[in-house]
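As a warm-up, study this chain.
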Amino acid sequence: MKKLLFILLTLVAFSGSAYCQNIKKAYMARQQENGTLYFIVPQEVFSNKENGPLTLDMVKLSTSDTVRLNFTVTCKDISPVDSVSFEASEITTRVPVEKIFIRPAKKSAWEHRYSLLIPYQDMKDIFAADRSPAVYVHSGAVETRYVAKDKIWKGYSEKIRTILSVMSAN
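Now compare it with the structure written out below.
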């Protein structure tokens, strides 16, 4: 009986530490003069069949009620993006973007990099949604939909919810 209990405790301890190590690789926290700065490393979670992945990273200062999302997409069109919307369950949020750059990419395409601010509570709500959200990139009247596969979204959203909990607790 003692052996079985030891094995179970070892498995629980190992699985918990493996999960924490995985989270540690997903973000960085640095103390700043005006609070703790959290950086969630870039991930390719969303994709579009024609354009490929949408790479997303996030930055939040503990004293702020907003999250800065930075994203990169590759498009055949050079036309700048004007806004992004997130659609998850009952939540739809549309946010204007700030252009960081547009530069040539391979195969007659353009790499676009943008940044936006989104309320922290909206971000928490998106990641708490029961299904993977869709991200819509708007360029004038053109709307491009990016989606996450359910399996990828499940793992990613669990990590982000844990990181958001760490942010809220500090």
